[in-house]
Amino acid sequence: MTARTPNTRKYAALLRGINVGGNKKVPMAELRSVLEGLGHGDVRTYLQSGNAVFSSAETDTTALARGLEAAIEAHFGFRVPCLVVDGDHLAAVVAACPFPAAELEGRQLHATFLSEQPGPERFAALDGAAYLPEEYRLGDRVLYLYAPDGLGRSKLAEALARPAVVKGLDVTTRNWNTVVKLVELTRP
């Protein structure tokens, strides 16, 4: 493992759609090797659902994500969309949560990370009142989703994932427990 130097930052790589239903198998040990092969240090993975943390001197998160996507495709033979966010952004996502996270179960609150900031017009056709008690709020490159019965039963999550809403964006969702853990893992 490459050691972290003073000029590096900590990042979380969020891979979308791996290790679900036997598709796109990415063993975490191999993912760590891929990240280390890219020259990243302090590489760790969290859970089996595509969460990795690492340090890098690179500051362009889009370049980091595209590099990881290319390395994964070269290693595993299939494309996996990736988002890379720095530890400061993750901490800001938690701090700005518009829902009472401390009062909710982790399965009830989710953060959908977005590759870029969408304008509110993307959500204009979505009647939020029709999905109550589920709710969403748009933050800085993140969509907060309160789904009291969990993501698997959420009709609002389905509506927010429609092509008209996410077209042109790379998106991936994590439950609140995972988001909080990733903040912890990306602290300097």
Largest sheet: spatial strand order: 2-3-1-4
Our Rg estimate from Cα atoms comes to: 17 Å
Uncertain stretches: none
Percent of residues in helices = 25-40%
Number of helix segments?
A: 6
Largest sheet: 4 strands, antiparallel
Care to count the β-strands?
A: 8
Order of helices and strands: EHEEHEHEEEHHEH
| Class from secondary-structure proportions | alpha+beta
Shape: globular
Beta-strand content estimate: 15-25%
Mean pLDDT: 93
Give the termini separation.
17 Å
Task: Report on the architecture of this protein.
- The protein has 188 residues and is an alpha+beta fold.
- Helices cover 29% and strands 23% of the residues.
- The protein has helices at 28-37, 61-76, 87-95, 155-160, 163-166, 176-185; strands at residues 9-15, 41-46, 51-56, 82-86, 109-114, 135-138, 142-146, 171-175.
- A hairpin with a 4-residue loop joins strand 2 (41-46) and strand 3 (51-56).
- Helix 3 packs across helix 6.
- The radius of gyration is 17 Å and the shape is globular.
Task: Give a summary of the structure in a few sentences.
This protein is an alpha+beta fold and 188 residues long. The protein has helices at residues 28-37, 61-76, 87-95, 155-160, 163-166, 176-185; strands at 9-15, 41-46, 51-56, 82-86, 109-114, 135-138, 142-146, 171-175.
What brief labels describe this structure?
globular; 188 residues; alpha+beta; 8 strands; four-stranded antiparallel sheet; single chain; 23% strand
